[in-house]
Specification:
The chain has 447 residues and is an alpha/beta fold. It has 21 helices and 9 strands.
Length: 447
């Protein structure tokens, strides 16, 4: 019997399944689904099933597990077996695993690896996080500039078993500098004696080692590339970033942005595996800071205490008005953070965008003011209606401008604009809204 797995909508063996069912599943399941199934098993059982797999399949399944699970299992796998698995993994995947291991495990792993693999892992693990160097792979195919099409195909046939992709190969000169690239499709269609330099794409798009991974992913999407070459300062090819690794990087960036937008400090663990301590530590910092921001709103209310005592009906509209300001600000901030992240807008556009946002906010504020005017008249009469209407108009404008401006300001200060999150914008808008509301009330009601 089989049951649908919750994560990947696959038929997973039920607890207590026969050995035949388990063998059929571990033999026939896709490596991604098999990895997901093993992750939800108790560690000893997962380790047993993993050890029974052929080496190449074992490495593929292991590589498709989360890094947290890989690091946990690595401590229980004999060093020689772990080295055999790591040798079969893609270069970028094994470098990621290496960075998650403790010092002793690193030493044991390196001891059992070949010298070339040791050097490759050490080099890839040394690049800065979130850079092109950190997500690139060294499993790329190269051909010489002096080859013919027939010689290039023969060379690719030799290299293919050890490379991650050969759909696009890279043409290097004698000093390993990148001078071109060529599609497998072009090679196959070319005459045998055609020189590579006549059919290659010269001046290929490339990035440097320190290019941000989000920029890399954006370039792969923009130019519709299967892979993007990475070169060092001398122009030598040192790796490629494949489209699947770029997609993973973009997903990680989006997850980080969502966490920041919610005023949660970024963390890499999955929600299912993150511990109480991790979740607490990542959330408490901003919550504590925002408490002090909210004290500003409280101080504003205390300052206008006499106004509130004279017109208690003003309190009825306070949540409505300050929430409207925060909501408008959150909308503007979310739109702007996403536009900056995708490159849809740049810092030079801020003047035009602020002017346009002012016009949009004025229209929104006027519409919402018209909506609340009748409510204000029913609750407190014409004067209260005027106060509420004017306040609604102004706080929506203020909130929208705050939400639009903060991402630009943070970008100008070279900070992540995602930090201009909904709670932060709301806290600022609330404090300003309280002052605007009671200031208008004091003026209109002659208090």
């Amino acid at each position: 019997m089989r049951v649908t797995g919750p994560d990947h909508n696959q038929n997973w063996p039920m607890p207590g399944a026969s050995s035949g069912d388990l063998a059929a599943f571990t033999t026939g399941a896709h490596v991604v689904d098999l990895a997901a199934w093993l992750e939800q098993l108790p560690k000893p059982e997962a380790q047993r099933h993993l050890a029974n797999l052929p080496l190449v399949r074992r490495a593929k399944v292991f590589a498709n597990m989360t890094l947290e699970v890989q690091a946990d299992l690595a401590g229980s796998i004999p060093p020689s077996d772990l080295a055999a698995i790591v040798t079969q993994m893609d270069s970028d995947d094994r470098a990621d695993l290496f960075k998650c291991l403790g010092p002793e495990l690193r030493r044991n792993l390196m001891r059992d690896l070949a010298k070339d693999d040791q050097d490759d892992i050490s080099r890839l693990a040394s690049y800065a996080e979130e850079s092109a160097g950190a997500i690139m792979t060294t499993d790329y195919a190269v051909i010489g500039a002096n080859m013919t099409a027939r010689e290039a195909i023969a060379e690719l046939r030799r290299q293919a078993p050890e490379k991650e992709t050969i759909y696009r190969s890279y043409v290097l000169d004698a000093r390993r500098r990148l001078i071109g690239s060529i599609r497998l499709h072009a090679l196959v269609l070319a005459a045998d004696t055609t020189p590579i330099i006549q059919i290659m794409d010269d001046a290929p798009i490339s990035v440097s080692l320190d290019t941000d991974r989000e920029v890399v992913a954006g370039m792969i999407a923009r130019y519709d590339l299967l892979a993007l070459p990475v070169v060092d300062a001398a122009g030598e090819l040192v790796g490629i970033v494949t489209h699947d690794d770029a997609a993973d990087a973009m997903q990680a960036e989006m997850t980080e942005d969502f966490q920041k937008i919610s005023t949660v400090l970024p963390f890499t663990q999955s929600m299912r595996e993150a511990g109480i301590g991790v979740l607490y530590s990542k959330r408490i910092v901003w919550l504590a800071l925002l408490v002090f921001g909210n004290l500003f709103s409280g101080a504003g209310i205390a300052y206008f205490e006499e106004t509130i005592l004279a017109y208690v009906s003003l309190v009825f509209f306070l949540p409505l008005l300050i929430d409207s300001s925060g909501n408008a600000g959150s909308q503007s901030a979310t739109l702007m953070v996403r536009a900056l992240a995708t490159g849809d807008v740049a810092l030079k556009d801020w003047r035009n965008l602020i002017v346009r946002e002012l016009a949009v906010a004025a229209a929104l504020g006027a519409t919402m003011a018209i909506v609340v005017l009748p409510v204000g008249a029913m609750r407190g009469g014409p004067e209260i209606a005027l106060v509420v209407g004017l306040t609604m108009f102004l706080v929506v404008i203020v909130g929208s401008l705050v939400g639009m401006s903060l991402p630009f300001l943070l970008s100008r200060l070279r900070l992540d604009p995602a930090t201009a999150s909904g709670p932060l914008v709301t806290t600022i808008s609330d404090g300003v809204g309280v002052i605007v509301y009671f200031s208008i009330a004091s003026y209109v009601l002659h208090l």
